């Protein structure tokens, strides 16, 4: 029996919650994920703007994806963010009450005090998925509250284990900040077995990472960061669709934001028809992008 499978959040800094999500939730989420992967592969601008290419990543950090030729994988997504903008089905999918109640229990508050920070898809495709380096989420410099009042839920869409690059953790490292990610003892590392439908909760101070996926099994994980309403932020990049909203307000916030986005699109097409030189400026200077990742 793998002891990581029965770890407890407060003592070990992570916990697997079993059979939280139904087969129909998984079915619908896999469909929505296939749609955003397709958007990325076909160069849809919003998917590109919020994504990281597996090929570019592998070329920039070959040590993280040894033996893989990044130049052949430029159109393959590694990470895709701002999922609620790319496919509205994620609004309902991520509103699934157990995700918010697990978070509320672990952060010792009411579900109504929990807010969504952001979500992304992190992929380790079969045979070519990269390693994720050791890190603590409370050290990120893009979306991080001042205190520990937040966490990440990792939701695999296929069973994940050590074999297919499943998330690796150092149990108890959330309580021992002196543990050094560069000198980790192999025996200190654990790999929980997380099945599709289970949810892995990660404490913001827990050291975690993961091996490349060289198996013949896919490994797609949805990562959602939640926090407590009212917390002050050390770092806060551009807010993605739905950010900082409670579950009760997520649908309304996303409908309002999409109405604004369509008004903006109409305004821009009228403006660009009258001032075509703006297109040149946009192409030259680019639009601000974000990737929400230190992975
Ligand atoms: O995808 C994984 O296995 C880990 C993702 C992760 O480390 C993170 O989001 O902080």
TrEMBL record:
Gene Ontology molecular-function annotations: 2-oxoglutarate-dependent dioxygenase activity; iron ion binding
Keyword Transmembrane: no
Source species, domain of life: Bacteria
Keywords: Dioxygenase, Oxidoreductase
Pfam families: PhyH
Family annotation (SUPFAM superfamilies): Clavaminate synthase-like
Name of the protein in question: Phytanoyl-CoA dioxygenase
